[in-house]
Amino acid sequence: MPLSQKWWDFLGSMRLAISLLTILAIASAVGTMVKQNEPMINYVNQFGAFWAPWFGSLGLYDVYNQPWFLVILVILLISTSICLIRNTPKMLRDMREFKNHNRTNTLLHLHEHDRWQSTESVQILTHSAAQILQKHGYQVRASKNADGVYLAAKRGRYNRLGYIFTHLAIIVICIGGLLDSELSIRAQVLLFGKQPFSNVATQIPDNGILSNDTLSYRGNVSVSEGKTVDYVLLDYDQNTQLVQKLPFNLHLDKFTIDYYSTGMPKRFASDVSVQDKTTGETFKQTIEVNHPLRYKGVAIYQSSFTDGGSSLKLGLYPMTGTVSQPAMADAVMFKNHQIAVAGNEYTIEWREFKAINVEDISGTVTKAAQDISPLAHAMRPTGMEKKFESLGPSIQFVLRDKTGQGVEFRNYTSPVTLDSQAVILSGVRTNPDEDFRYLRIPADGEQSIGDFMRLRAALSNSALRDRAIRQYALTLGGGADTEQFVSGTTKMLDVFAQGGLGQLGQLLERDLPEQQRDQMASSLAKALAGNLWELLNVARVAEGLKPLPDNEQSRQFARMLMVSYSDSLEYGSPVYVQLQGFEQVQASVFQMTRSPGQFWVYLGSLMLVLGTLAMTFIRERRLWLHIKPNEHGEQVLTVAASSTRRTFDYLSQWQKVLADLRGMG
After folding, report:
1. Mean local confidence (pLDDT), 579-601
2. How far, in Å, are 2, 5, 10, 12, 89 from residue 82 at the CA level?
């Protein structure tokens, strides 16, 4: 056998096609279970630092555009095409042929057969048998020779179309899949000098812009209100992108968003204007979820929304020194903002601004201050039950020093009630893979962090601290040991101001035996809270404000300030950035796709359904009837039937047909 014939038989073999289909099915299952085209860090978190690179080298993070996947798709296309070319003529011929059996003894070897005699004439039997078979849905062909009459009947001939349609469906789907793949993009990079650029590139190189003739693509673009775009960004791999120019200009006239009473988005839509680059024709349309805009082969979907460069008014509170009032600053989202704190320069890199937040605050819930050890950490969670609450506007940013080291923060503007206390939350993390840890700052009577900042600044002001200590000593009755009390309290506040509750706890562990620590810790915490309450009142009076009333609520507030200040020493920032006002600018995120293979995939899927239905519900059945005279002048009738599957339905119908034929006489 020639080598070409061997290859032809191999490529057209069923074993090869089934093997390829199995591999594609497994790969598609992996592509469904593993999120595709995610940042690499997400896969490291999911699979670990060892396995993530291995899975990446196999292309499991972009399965459908891997060379091996496309090669298998092409081979399957070739294999199925060869199978269809070889078998279609035979199947079409079988649909037309009736397969006459001219030898009666052959019929007796089939599973379903019978034989009997009749005294009726050949003509009557032939005519009656043809009518009976037609009544049961058979097509009948009769032939005659010197030995007798031969009837060949069949039904369900369109069963063969099921095989043709299913094979043709695989071909059409493969073609659609190849049309919608990144073959045209990869070809431009490999053969025509296009060069992907870094995701952080500030200027797009000319060779990073794809041809207008790109066959298919899928990408995203963010458009701010009042802005126009004529391109879409395409991810080439984990770290690089390409730009695809569009045949039209897309202008975002207005972005609309409606919320549920819980603050969750209910509906968001974009009113856009589209201008054809060739004709200049302009039209308007609204794009929303499940209602895309389609124009010139490009489908524009409402993917999500983000900030479009809102103007922010910031209050920059120093976290060290004796200044308690904030410095005011204006910033714009996504434009790095330079600040100077205590002679050091920092850069604020904006990540996110949200005007409305509904958050799960269960991770920030702790026991009330009076219910826990005075030296316990205030941010230790005690339960994971979800608790959703509206937290108002928030800003998320990275504060980076001149060496490049950065800490990420998420600061909320409005207070939220936790453990019966109104607090303002500030999340902090040093690694984007971590969850935020939240600093809880008690909100004062004006629902702000003013009193916290006054207390923090007063702890750094020796004059205010000395005045507060002496006033607190007087409230305790004074006496000959006042100076000793002032000296001891000053030392306590020095230690607390520098190291918080943790450092006070270390001193107790160092200087006292274990059996005395709990009692001394309780006394020390009570004295510390009283001095801080007095210090806060002194600071308020120094700024021309009224002192807090002497009641349990104020004392509880002072205890919360004590714990919060202790935690703030681990905050990791020399400045607290508070959002004090904003002018929001919305941006719409569109996903734009060009999918010329979509029609063919849908057509192939329809053909696959039709073919499967034809193979399942249309059964090819054949029946033969021989009528021959014998030496007694009677007619000997021999009947037999066959089917691709001997089902209960087939056997039941065979009995009915046989009974009707025997009833002829």
Report:
1. 91
2. 17, 12, 10, 5, 12
Cα–Cα distance between 495 and 489 in angstroms, integer? 10
Query: At 533, which amino acid appears?
Result: W
DSSP-derived letter for residue 305 is E
Nearest to 458 by CA among 324, 366, 333, 571: 324
Structure tokens at 548: 């807090």
Residue by residue, DSSP assigns 72-94 as HHHHHHHHHHHHHHHHHHHHHHH
Query: What sign has the CA pseudo-torsion 486, 492, 494, 496?
Result: negative
The confidence score (pLDDT) of residue 259 equals: 78
Pairing of strands 240-259, 209-210: parallel
- Strands (DSSP E) found in 23-173: 112-118, 139-145, 148-155
Residue whose token pair is 């802005």: 227
Helices (H), 545-590: 552-568
Amino acid identity, residue 665? G
Q: What is the DSSP string of 456-485?
A: HHHHT-HHHHHHHHHHHHHHTT--TTHHHH
Unique residue bearing structure tokens 């290859």: 7
Contacts of 495 (CB under 8 A, 6+ apart): 503, 504, 507
- Lowest mean pLDDT segment, chosen from 306-310, 321-325, 517-521, 554-558: 517-521
- How many residues appear in the chain? 665
Residue 42: CB atoms within 10 Å: 13
CA contacts within 13 A on the Cβ side of 42: 8
Identity of the amino acid at 336: N
pLDDT at 362: 60
Contacts of 100 (CB under 8 A, 6+ apart): 141, 143, 150, 152, 624
Q: What is the maximum span of the chain, computed from C-alpha positions, in angstroms?
A: 149
C-alpha–C-alpha distance, residues 119 and 635, integer Å: 6
